[in-house]
Amino acid sequence: MSKTIVILGAGVGGLATADTLRQLLPPGDRIVLVDNSFDGTLGLSLLWVLRGWRRPEEVRVRATAASLPGVDLVTATVDRIDIPGQGVHTDRGVIGYDALVIALGATLNAGGVPGLADALDAGVAGQFYTLDGAAELHAKVEALGCGRIAVLVAGVPFKCPAAPFEAAFLIAAQLGDRFADGTVLIDTFTPDPLPMPVAGPQVGEALVAMLKDRGIGFHPRKAITRIDSAETTLHFDDGTSEPFDLLAVVPPHVPSAAARSTGLGEAGWIPVDPHTLSTTVDSVWAIGDATVLTLANGKPLPKAAVFAEAQAGVVAHGVARYLGYDVPERLFTGEGACYVETGDRQAAKGAGNFLSSPAPSVTLYPPSREFHEEKVAQERAWLDRWNT
């Protein structure tokens, strides 16, 4: 009897899972990929849109039946997931499944900080976690004649731990002489004690040194409580406040309503086995930004595309084995790397094993042109693969 496998979300993890499953399963098994638009992008491209090196239309990822033959692409919004009934409820009806992969990512929640939505609406703030947002923030930076730009992490966890600091470097490069001569200042604010804390203090301290070397301020342990858009002021939980002329914000990230409806995780993020990405339900897996994968040091695995893509192969093999097919087991190793653009077409690279015990073993390599080109090649390969 044929089986139905449903994959929710056509981001990096969802696309790669569908692709691998189609290679592993017989043609009679149905693979259904559900997404609300099938119009996405790589996170690394967003930062280049912010810098002005890419236009939004150049970096859109649009999977089609031609790029995923043998996979049913269903454009629908997932309302809720009925785990006991093995059904996905969407605005286009209910889809039953024999195996389910949840790759719904994370959702931006501007309402999570008082005053943030008002600041975005008023134009004194911008965000770079969507294509339109990154392009609009680029224009705001271009128009700023003088003043102070605050790059704010409004809450944790968030996608790509290096992104806010990479954004600061790229904004400084875009400003050019306005930043170099002190006409525009840039300061970063984060609730964490160091950038990329999961990678360890050596990586964080090296990144702080890079920021200071470029003349970019770093302010740790600054948890935002309120943003006053009229006074253009940030208010923090330690009682301090900071003025700004333009705010570049990482909005709070929350799990999707559909992921929360599963009841698999108390906070909505779905706990998974570190090696298999399985959940507490035999027929359900979760990957990528929708998950919480706890490392040996008690911190969560960063939300990053490099991990979602690696997890996809693990989950595809796990699903096939669960359905009774003779395929080898794969395990998630925790190997991964991310890049930190410094604005001059060079990038630093943090690489290592995040599942190492007692803590991740990660090294931050100094900026080079070669690392920037590695990142360019990753973007090009992904766009070429899906935009058939």
UniProtKB/TrEMBL annotation:
Cited SUPFAM superfamilies: FAD/NAD(P)-binding domain (SSF51905)
EC number: 1.8.5.4
Keywords: Oxidoreductase
Domain of life, source organism: Bacteria
Annotated Pfam families: Pyr_redox_2 (PF07992)
Keyword Glycosyltransferase: no
Residues of the FAD/NAD(P)-binding domain: 4-312
Group of enzyme by EC: oxidoreductase
GO function terms (MF aspect): sulfide:quinone oxidoreductase activity
InterPro entries cross-referenced by the UniProt entry: FAD/NAD-bd_sf, FAD/NAD-binding_dom, SQRD
Keyword Oxidoreductase: yes
Full protein name: Sulfide-quinone reductase
Biological source species: Mycobacterium simulans
